[in-house]
Amino acid sequence: MLGLFSRLRKPVERVHAISSRPLRILESRQSSLAPMQWQSHYCSTMVYFWVAVVTEEVCRSKYSEDEKHRVLQRVFARIVKEMRGVPAIAKKCVLPDGHPHRLKTLADLKRAVELRRNGADARLMIYADYREAVEGDGRPAVFGNHWGVRTEAAHEILLARYLASNLTAR
Question: Where are the domains of the chain?
């Protein structure tokens, strides 16, 4: 078991570093919303599947599906704890297959993932959140944030805006 943990330490750290950035941006810009996100089905689902996407990118074919799942679970729990949440509650808020709101959540996530991988899509510039994220690409992070984030990428801004808009609409 110790060998497995040491084998997964590196991907866990890499996945955590990448997947936690949008949440750090949200917390640095709207810190009052950060603890509430783990009670939102939309936010918990968005973050869980964002971590899953990053896990797949980092681990690729080097790791088995079981190992990837362990990395996903560890990183998700770590992020929730860092953002003042309870992992068990956040995990229960992840929408199950077939839930009608899960499709909308995953469609929003897909836009952010495509922005990360392929750059801006001119067809999506009609959406204010998307346009503002693309225009803000590379903007400096909030001065003095304790996470050490220096610049904000467009996909990170977009994910943070989706989470914030869902939380403020509640």
Answer: 2-169
Sign of the torsion formed by the C-alpha atoms of 81, 84, 89 and 93: negative
- DSSP code for 94: S
Predicted confidence (pLDDT) per residue in 110-156, tens digit:
999 999 998 888 988 888 888 888 998 888 876 555 555 677 889 99
Which residues of 11-160 form beta strands (DSSP E)?
139-140, 151-152
- Mean per-residue pLDDT over the chain, rounded: 88
Q: What angle do CA 46, 52, 54 make, to 5 degrees?
A: 105
**Could you tell me the pTM of the whole model?**
0.90
> Which residue type is seen at 40?
S
3-state secondary structure 15-59: HHHHHCHHHHHHHHHCCCCHHHHHHCHHHHHHHHHHHHHHHHHHH
CA quadruple 37, 20, 120, 41: dihedral, nearest 10: -20
| 49 closest CA partner among 8, 1, 102 | 102
Total Cβ atoms within 10 A of residue 169: 8
Which residues, at least 6 apart from 155, have a Cβ–Cβ distance to it below 8 Å? Answer: 22, 112, 113, 115, 116, 133
